[in-house]
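Lecture notes, unit on protein representations.

Consider one protein chain, 24 amino acids long.
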Amino acid sequence: MAARDIRDSLVNLMEMTVQSWTES
């Protein structure tokens, strides 16, 4: 797995987490 793929996955996960926080 490329480092960019890992970074993109982490960014995507953080974005979903932030969305769940702001919605609640």
